[in-house]
Amino acid sequence: MIADDLDTLDAHQLRDALRAARAEAAFKQAVIEKLTHENAILKRLKFAAQSERFGAEQKSLLDETLDSDLAAVAAEIEALRPSRAAGDRQQPPAREAAGASAAPRRVP
Q: CB neighbours of 65 closer than 8 A, spacing ≥ 6?
């Protein structure tokens, strides 16, 4: 809703607009928390001592996948954070744009 339109709304419409804005903010906060948690898990996987058990090729593939996933999650979190300037627009989630996938098929 555009700020100029707020002046023309009655009290009931303003309450509805506020409820919608609160619901959207709660949803975005939940997504940010979920992605932050996913980011923490990916970092744990990347830096855990268990990664030393992989062979050199497997470790390289795992590092490559984790790096791309970490970058995609970080970009998606930034895209969902409230903008500081009024003119900023949200960008689409970067996860698909970064080409992140669950894991390469060649990892045994």
A: 100, 101, 103, 104, 107
